[in-house]
Structure prediction request, 669 residues.
Amino acid sequence: MLSYYLKLALISFKRAPSLYFLVILTLSIGVGLLSANLALVNSMGSDPIPDKSDRVFHVSMNTWPDDQPGAEPMHILRYRDARKITESGIPEHSAVFYASGVYARDAESKSLTRYDSAVRATTPGFFPLTQAPFAYGSAFKRSSGMEVVIGDDLNQKIFAGANSVGKTLELNGELLTIVGVLKPWLLRPLFYHATEGRAFNATDDIYVPLETSIDLGWPIHARSSTTEENGSVGNSRDKNVYYLQAWVELPVKNNLQAFQDYLDHYSQTLKDAGEHPLAIRNEIDDVNSWLLKLKVVDQKVLAFTLASVLFLCVCVFNASSLLLSRFHAGKFEVGLRRAVGASNRHMLMQGLMESVLVGLIAGVLALALSWLFLKFSAKFLPDLSNIAVLEPKILLSGVLLALVTAIASALYPLYRASRYTISAELK
Amino acid sequence: MLNMNNISRIYRTDTIQTHALRDFSLAVAPGEFVAVTGPSGSGKSTFLNVAGLLDNFDQGEYQLDGVSVKGLKDDELSRLRNEKIGFIFQNYNLIPDYSIFDNVDMPLRYRGFNGAERKRRVEQALEKVGLASRLNYLPSQLSGGQQQRVAIARALAGEPKILLADEPTGNLDSLMARQVMELLHKLNEEGTTIIMVTHDPDQAREVKRNVQVIDGQISDFSIYAPLQPQSSAGEKQELSHA
Prediction:
């Protein structure tokens, strides 16, 4: 019977092509707009490191030396506070880093072209903690030394994607050797530096040992705070310069409490020594809690998604009205089919087949429209370019949504059709 | 074949109740050809709709081929309509953009026959009404009489126990009406039970049994004298109480 229902659906389309075109267009615009918004929300709200997002924690501490009643723990730490974390021995991995930037060129190249490159000055634990994927070589082993790991983008630009391990880069006039090259690496959101509106930035171009970067005085390209008059990186080690972010990987729950106790004890020691007057308040948040706290999912996008849902409801209502008029016009045939032996179930199946066909066509059109919406969004709002992506699950959900809305649109007309009195429709 | 006892059908609006059928009783034996006549609004079409399970009734008992239809679910009623009843309508009720084959094939689709069986039955039914060569025509390419014969073929294709015809010649000129009536008589002679609603006294006289409906009730069984010499008044009376 399915092939028969399919044949009837095609005949029905042929009879009223304009009406079905309008139904399909109405649904596909509604579904397309919602799918585009869902794609953004999905990108913003996805788990960037699902294997261990519940074991990786951001550390916020409250060691500010001045009195700041009610102040939140700071997401940036002093060098000595951060060192205390790496020295604790409790985490399986720890990463302490800051963002910087340099101009990079191949030291052996005759070309003087330099590339503006984002730098992550970090401890070696960054790589296993973030699961950074290596294409060639490996991470540097120490927090000092004239070594770097570079990202795929920069490797493509300078070395055309070849294995550049062992090559030397000139970075702001200093020569550093490449020990590792990463594969293309997309973190959505960029959980390790989601503050300051960077949640959807690309991963970095260069990863340099923390101590090396401090020694070279590479500037801080992110938020920092200091109580010092001279708060530059070069002399930050023993100063109240807050600029380092810290992440730890704690594999067992007991470690979490032990680590919290360790931080609190350290803060208490500082307080006892009169180094800060604040209540002890250190916070450790796992990846998703941290991203939630930072509200990386744009509230405006959420509001627009809600508006898209309402718009889709209006589309379904409109499509339903159109289909109702179509079913009304087809009452005679419904009556005739019922008279010659079709049951309400047969008519329901016939209507559903028509809806499924409408839904499939609308689904395909909706995905094309979603793609266009996202392209336009990325064009007019460049910040969205990294997240305006239609992932397979969004594609699938778009088609399913179109199917569901097409069926929902036909439900009331089908219900009305099932209430027709056969004899009345045949007059 | 068909047995109605004290059937009532009432149409209600907010203020008015109309008794379309009132204590309507009729029995039709297998192989009969019954003409139902009566003035407009008398209830004969309502009777045909109830008999064909196209409309409900409010009171009474109705058995079709030994099956009591009261309380049957939609699926069961649909199956009964599909398997036991063939409808012939005054205005043919063919679907204009379906071929003759597809129109005749329609009831068979709901019976669950495979393609080969449906093809055989459609061809056989169209052969019976003399239109086997017009399988791929559209209804608009046929005359009114031919369209009605297609409708008869559609009714016959499922090999029903009973044919219900509602003014089957009402839209035809006398020549075509004659052809259709001859076809119905032939089918009846082959054993098909037929109930035909008609306004035409001549057609009513042609058939073996006449029933007149007035005000939703059977009022007179012998208003039209049958043409057949063997049909006596006594025989009609007997049939009316069958």
